[in-house]
Amino acid sequence: MSLFIGGCLLVFLQASAYGGVVQATFVQPFFPPQIQDSWAAYTPYYPVQAYTPPPKDCKITQVNIIQRHGARFPTSGAGTRIQAAVKKLQSAKTYTDPRLDFLTNYTYTLGHDDLVPFGALQSSQAGEETFQRYSFLVSKENLPFVRASSSNRVVDSATNWTEGFSAASHHVLNPILFVILSESLNDTLDDAMCPNAGSSDPQTGIWTSIYGTPIANRLNQQAPGANITAADVSNLIPLCAFETIVKETPSPFCNLFTPEEFAQFEYFGDLDKFYGTGYGQPLGPVQGVGYINELLARLTEMPVRDNTQTNRTLDSSPLTFPLDRSIYADLSHDNQMIAIFSAMGLFNQSSPLDPSFPNPKRTWVTSRLTPFSARMVTERLLCQRDGTGSGGPSRIMRNGNVQTFVRILVNDALQPLKFCGGDMDSLCTLEAFVESQKYAREDGQGDFEKCFD
Ligand SMILES: *[C@@H]1O[C@H](CO)[C@@H](O)[C@H](O)[C@H]1NC(C)=O
Ligand SMILES: *[C@@H]1O[C@H](CO)[C@@H](O)[C@H](O)[C@H]1NC(C)=O
Ligand SMILES: *[C@@H]1O[C@H](CO)[C@@H](O)[C@H](O)[C@H]1NC(C)=O
Ligand SMILES: *[C@@H]1O[C@H](CO)[C@@H](O)[C@H](O)[C@H]1NC(C)=O
Ligand SMILES: *[C@@H]1O[C@H](CO)[C@@H](O)[C@H](O)[C@H]1NC(C)=O
Ligand SMILES: *[C@@H]1O[C@H](CO)[C@@H](O)[C@H](O)[C@H]1NC(C)=O
């Protein structure tokens, strides 16, 4: 099905049965890439690269997934700011541009904070896809172990994920959401445990006044007297994303901005994450340490060693933190995943993002890092190679000798893992990976204490 509305092509893609195996139904509003891929944190998940199957000498033995909840309504704070900006536009007596005429009879109807139906679908598709990709790892005795942070939208994403997994197995394998970590207590799946962490407001503020001012000036010509400010622009552009995702049809707000302006909004989102809990925030990465220590425990099948956000009671019990499963799935938030990427060394930039100038070559692009339903997957593998590759080929070992490796995919894009000597197949030995995670193993090297000083 494809609709042509207001200059935007909307296609609903629906994959069909393939090769006798029912594929995950992949349904998503699909705009020309220059728009939908510029919605920063509000871009719907898409595979950034086609999934690379493991090399022939390797066999996957364990999978660790951390996934952002699916698409949601605006948070309540954002919803209030969006409505205030819309009200300003509606206060104009007349519009000089017909693209604004819909505002004479427009009512804001979005809810707040919770998962929306499209977000539930994304989560269940992720569960289906996990079953299809890794079904050889699971059995009735070895089901995926699933945890979630306690927000409703995260819990709903987790139960939709387990439902999708179960449906894909024809209800033979029925994992359940087993642990919910309270966001007001020790929680490795949320970024709420560092009261002294700063915000990205200084950096996003600089960029907002640079990119938002000309857009505000134009809107004030199109809607005389509305008094739209640069800050309002960063609230009006995402309304295009929210309305489109909730109503599953293009929002008229999308027509008010050009593809270049959406790209400028993406940079606002990039700065927001980089300076929020990413490399640009002194107390950002430390918030990802607890999860990395849990990941190391699972990969090595050794008890968790952590003195940061972990709940020691839960993590020391085989019931609530088993070490003998093959698939672990944790449902979380974008800001937390950004902290984890930055504590681990993923998407490191050669220099910090410049708040007044987007570097077109940057690899820090929020819509590719943490879109709705984003996922980081750490695969553990046994391979017949020695792991000396470091950027090139590793030597293949004879006589059936094998060694344990890891590789990491973010939204299906294989990460090079230079920080642990990733070879040409982006494989690091487990040993080198563990070694590289010194910041986590040393509990943030003093940063965790700074959260509370
Ligand atoms: C305004 O919107 C309401 C509800 O969506 C609709 O019933 C009504 O016909 C619209 N009026 C005009 C003038 O478009
Ligand atoms: C999926 O998420 C929705 C919220 O969007 C929730 O109402 C529903 O109960 C969830 N479904 C399952 C199977 O958990
Ligand atoms: C740890 O988890 C247990 C079990 O859910 C809970 O009762 C306890 O309050 C948690 N403690 C902290 C500090 O998170
Ligand atoms: C817009 O600003 C002008 C001048 O500051 C002011 O007179 C007017 O009341 C404002 N309009 C609105 C809708 O806030
Ligand atoms: C929660 O985390 C704090 C800070 O690391 C720690 O002092 C406390 O013991 C933890 N509580 C539990 C139950 O793990
Ligand atoms: C990121 O890169 C900077 C500069 O190249 C380096 O100093 C830092 O250690 C790196 N961070 C991580 C977590 O790898």
From TrEMBL:
Subcellular location: Secreted
Chief subcellular location: secreted
Cross-referenced Pfam families: His_Phos_2
Catalysed reactions listed for this entry: 1D-myo-inositol 1,2,4,5,6-pentakisphosphate + H2O = 1D-myo-inositol 1,2,5,6-tetrakisphosphate + phosphate; 1D-myo-inositol hexakisphosphate + H2O = 1D-myo-inositol 1,2,4,5,6-pentakisphosphate + phosphate; 1D-myo-inositol 1,2,6-trisphosphate + H2O = 1D-myo-inositol 1,2-bisphosphate + phosphate; 1D-myo-inositol 1,2-bisphosphate + H2O = 1D-myo-inositol 2-phosphate + phosphate
Disulfide bonds: 58-383, 194-451, 240-254, 420-428
Keyword flag Disulfide bond: yes
List of catalytic residues: 69, 334
UniProt xrefs under InterPro entries: Acid_Pase_AS (IPR033379), His_Pase_clade-2 (IPR000560), His_PPase_superfam (IPR029033), Histidine_acid_Pase_euk (IPR016274)
UniProt keyword terms in alphabetical order: Disulfide bond, Glycoprotein, Hydrolase, Secreted, Signal
One MF term in the entry's GO annotations: inositol hexakisphosphate 3-phosphatase activity
Listed GO CC annotations: extracellular region
CDD domains: HP_HAP_like
PROSITE patterns, per database record: HIS_ACID_PHOSPHAT_1, HIS_ACID_PHOSPHAT_2
Presence of the UniProt keyword Repeat in the record: no
Leader sequence residues: 1-19
Subunit field text: Monomer.
Protein name: Phytase A
Organism: Agrocybe pediades
Gene for this chain: phyA
